[in-house]
Amino acid sequence: MPDMSASVSLAMTHLVPLAKEVDENKVTPGVLGFIVFAVMALAVWGLMKSMSRQLGKVDFKETPDPEAESASETAPAKPGAGQS
Description:
- Keywords: Membrane, Transmembrane, Transmembrane helix.
- The radius of gyration is 30 Å and the shape is rod-shaped.
- By secondary structure, the protein is mainly alpha-helical.
- The chain is built from three helices and no strands.
């Protein structure tokens, strides 16, 4: 894990000055905001692609339950049912 924090601090030292080069009187997301947004967009794209692949494997055809069918055939009809 120490390598990750070192790479993050290295990236921040290079990216923060890029964001500071913008006019101080203007409020903009800058390069750092664009990079964060691009990483989030790539993450969402990857998750959507993975979800689509997983949903493609799902079989939606439901097999009938033999116990439910046999119970409905042997159940007595309720009195008054079917009379209009």
